[in-house]
Design a protein that fits this description.
The structure holds 2 protein chains of 2 kinds. By secondary structure, chain A is mainly α. Chain A is about 70% helix and about 0% strand. By secondary structure, chain B is α+β, with helices and mostly antiparallel strands. The N and C termini of chain B lie far apart (about 65 Å). In chain B, a hairpin with a 2-residue loop joins strand 3 and strand 4. Chain B has a 7-stranded antiparallel sheet, with helices on both faces. Chain B is built from 11 helices and 7 strands. At the A-B interface, helix 1, helix 2, helix 3, helix 4 and helix 5 of A face helix 4, helix 5, helix 8, helix 9 and strand 2 of B.
Chain lengths: ~160, ~250
């Protein structure tokens, strides 16, 4: 099954719940099977199937409410970090669990774009297709997401140092 | 270009998304600017560490994998049905290539896309363990549930004296726009009714047609587009459609 394990990993990161992720992946594959005609020749298969997963997730979350939480980047945001400090060095030495916790804490649109770019290693163009937004939006959202991630990690580093 | 402007390019640099000319310029700058070089290194390390921490954190259980395979195997789509043994034997990459090749042979039209999306939504709803979000046979319970969730409202018919039974409803998405999906039962058949905002650019469909064995009926009324889908026969779909059309 194409991208099965990767989609499941992404689904758990999005839903934060294994059972919900299983429902989401199952629905995604069924829709992919039935929806071949919606796959445009020349576009990216991975972006296409992730888009199905994402839309299914929106629907499963009763739509409008989830849509807002997916697209509103300012909800519950940590303050972006400004300027570079010796924390940059510490950020390179963070353990896996600290990064996982920070990623889980990020607002959904930021978590999503970091997963697509850094974890799935999608190009900006693929992400643009998957999210249905312009490449410029991908770049600005990614920058803000990384700033938020660094703020979370820096604050965690400070807490740990106390 | 000053250091701040180069710094703005560092994300694209670690994502290997810079144009060749910009890449050469930035690398020249990094050789002479220790601050930017350290920042680039930190970003690259964080990207790598993030990937290492998240890429395979959650693995599907063998039981779930088996369940999905069985679900797909029993799917009626002939393109996939003939391939279960191949799936077990070949890598995901190979399957992807096969799928993409098959898809390349399928003619694509906007109308087919919309119909496919509607059928997907109907089939996925029926297959779901929780097909609707509001469960009620009472239209006075189901209709108000959509208040505040949709930018429009609609009327539902009284079906108490008919063979149709209202099961409930949920919010769905079509073409990335929210819509109401209502589920009715007729004997053992399930019928989906989609109600969405009609738009001038909406792809025109015949008022009644069949697709992959499903009967579909659609009409526009008071700025809304109604689409009724079921594996019941066309007359049964038309009868429910008429009840919806004349609902007060």
């Amino acid at each position: 099954m194409p991208h099965f394990a990767r989609l499941f990993n992404l689904a758990v990161w999005l839903t934060q719940d294994r059972a919900s992720a299983e429902d989401l992946v199952q629905e995604t594959f069924m829709k992919a099977l039935k929806g071949f005609s919606s796959f445009r020749q020349g576009t990216n298969f991975r972006a296409w199937i992730y888009r199905i997963l994402r839309n299914s997730f929106l629907t499963s979350q009763s739509g409008l409410k989830a849509s807002v939480s997916f697209d509103s980047e300012d909800d519950g945001l940590p303050e972006p970090s400004t300027g570079e400090t010796p924390e940059s060095v510490l950020l390179t030495r963070l353990d896996r669990e600290t990064i996982q916790n920070a990623l889980e804490t990020l607002p959904l649109p930021f978590r999503e774009i970091i997963l697509l770019c850094d974890v799935e290693e999608m190009s900006y163009r693929e992400i643009s297709q998957a999210l249905g937004v312009p490449i410029g939006t991908v770049m600005s959202r990614l920058s803000r997401a990384r700033s938020a991630m660094r703020s979370l990690l820096s604050s965690g580093t400070k807490e740990a140092a106390r | 270009m000053n250091g701040d402007l180069w710094r703005d390019k560092l994300d694209a640099y670690v994502d290997e998304s810079l144009e060749q000319e910009e890449l050469a310029g930035l690398e020249d700058h990094l050789r002479t600017c220790g601050s930017c070089a350290a920042e680039a290194f930190a970003r690259l390390q964080l990207k790598r560490n993030t990937r290492a921490a998240a890429v395979a954190r959650y693995a599907p259980s063998p039981e779930f994998r088996l369940r999905i395979q069985k679900t797909l195997d029993t799917n009626r789509n002939p393109i996939w049905k003939g391939m279960p043994k191949l799936w077990l034997a070949t890598s995901a990459v190979m399957v992807t290539l096969i799928v993409v090749s098959v898809v390349a042979l399928v003619r694509y039209t906007p109308r087919q896309q919309l119909v496919a999306e509607l059928l997907d939504q109907h089939v996925a709803t029926i297959a779901s363990a929780n097909p609707v979000d509001v469960i009620s046979t009472d239209k006075h319970t189901v209709k108000p549930w959509f208040q505040g969730k949709l930018p429009f409202t609609f009327n539902l018919p009284e079906v108490g004296n008919s063979p149709y039974k209202l099961v409930g409803g949920k919010l769905a998405y079509l073409n990335h726009n929210p819509c109401a999906q209502l589920l009715y039962e007729l004997r053992k058949h399930e019928i989906s009714v989609f109600i969405l905002q009609d738009e001038p650019g909406m792809v025109l469909m015949p008022s009644a047609f069949s697709e992959k064995g499903f009967s579909l009926k659609t009409w526009s009324q008071a700025g809304l587009r109604y689409v009724v889908i079921s594996d019941a026969n066309a007359a049964d779909v038309a009868a429910l459609s008429e009840m919806l059309r004349t609902a007060h």
